[in-house]
Amino acid sequence: MANNADVGGGDGEEGEFTFAWKMFTSWDYLIGNAETADNKYASITTSFKSIVDEQENQKDENIHLRRFLRVLANFLITCSLGGSGYLIYFVVKRSQEFATRDDLSWYEKNELEIVMSLLGLVCPPLFETIAELEDYHPRIALKWQLGRIFALFLGNLYTFLFALFDEVNDKV
């Protein structure tokens, strides 16, 4: 196994699977002395610590870029949520104007339903694409994604109700 450690295992990059290679190929089975075994154990432990330190250093190098991308992603998602709310408000107001006309096309009759359906269809994948910028752990990314979709649907519902109540108060 130690001789084959240099041979690539496919299309992977050099230095990939360092932990696994060290775990399975670093022990010398010809060790017969307990003191030598302790020294080898300490050596392996030190090499594992260096792998962890190297990964932490790589994370720290890009911390400012990661923060900027997370702020950018949240800004884009906030703009998307605000834009969807404005679009629904605009379409509800427009549908109220259409209510006075008799010669409506199919699209004008169903514009509100079409817009609401398209927002529910387009925004969640858009949120997922934008969330790729944040580089969160998948479990945390899923929680954020579900929260954003919940905010989208709840915000769209409240905007829809607000626009309807606003129209009712102008008529009263």
Fill in the keyword field for this structure.
mainly alpha, 5 helices, 172 residues
Task: Tell me what the structure shows.
This is Transmembrane channel-like protein 2-A. The chain crosses the membrane at residues 71-92, 145-165. Keywords: Membrane, Transmembrane, Transmembrane helix. This protein is mostly helical. The chain is 77% helix and 0% strand. The protein has helices spanning 18-25, 34-61, 63-98, 106-131, 138-171. Helix 3 runs antiparallel to helix 4 (106-131) and helix 3 (63-98) packs parallel to helix 5. The protein is rod-shaped and about 95 Å long. It starts with 17 loop residues before the first helix and ends with a helix. The mean pLDDT is 83.
Short description:
The protein is mainly α and about 170 residues long. About 75% of the residues lie in helices and about 0% in strands.
Given as residue ranges, the uncertain stretches (5+ residues, pLDDT < 50) are none
The helix count comes to 5
- Rounded mean pLDDT score: 83
Report the strand count: 0
Q: Judging from the principal axes of the Cα atoms, what is the shape?
A: rod-shaped
Strand fraction: under 5%
Alpha-beta content class: mainly alpha
Using only C-alpha atoms, the radius of gyration works out to 29 Å
Secondary-structure element sequence? HHHHH
Kindly report how far apart the N and C termini lie: 84 Å
